[in-house]
Amino acid sequence: MKHLPHANWLRTFEAAARHSSFSAAAEELGLTPAAVSQQVRLLEAELNAVLFERLPRGVQLTEIGQAYALPIRNGFSDMAVATDGLFRAAKRQLVRVRASISCAALVIAPRLNQFRERHPDIDVELTTFVWADRFGVEASDIDIRFGAGEWDDGEVMHLGYEYAIPVCRPDYAASFGDDLSFAALSRGHIVSIRGSETDWPRLADQIGQPLQAPSHMTWVDSSLLALQTVMAGEGTTIVFESFAEQYLKQGLLCAPLTDRLGIRPSHYMVRDKGTEDRIEVQSVCAWIRSIYLT
Question: Is the pTM of this model over 0.90?
């Protein structure tokens, strides 16, 4: 590498050239005006050139000083851009969130862009679990769990009560014509979610209509699979309204009935112990609560 003057001298020269003032450069750099003057003189001696004309009030670049100032300024600018681009990510804050596959894919993931727009300095790592009742080996800062809220490994925050609704494709609902009813849907093709098998008989009891034997039954192990199954073909499933929201908004599925089934237990947000003072974790918690409680 070719010999370069001392970096501090170059930084001082650039600041003095930009301000046309040794005093203003000193204030920016945290130096005294005398120290700025001394560093500029050392640089001039190193280069064997006069870079500034000393005026009664301030300084003015000489012709050679003007020619030198621009590439020096560009050089510092390029270094700042490179430093920011390569190492900025290390300064960002990461918050790790875990949820069930259905909750993560259907509620959290579609809204991540909203959070990023509000908090561009916070990154969210979203992962899924089949069932979680403790913070364990797969570390996370925040869990979204389904249950009764009886966990003691973190701060537990209730995310409100859920309602489940029957959903199907619009053309499937239209195929029943004037016979569209809970009884008619229940004797058609049912997509049932493992662990939620009682939703159909409970809704039947609630609305006082008979539960028919379905003509065909498909079993899946998550709401996400249930929604994808009914969207791809015939059938009706009962899922949380929050899970079906995106499908309903896009018109991919419809809610053929007005009846809703109250669900207990419900979703809770659990914040890991030791994260109480992390502002970025508090921001993600507030955002998740806003999704469920507004």
Answer: no
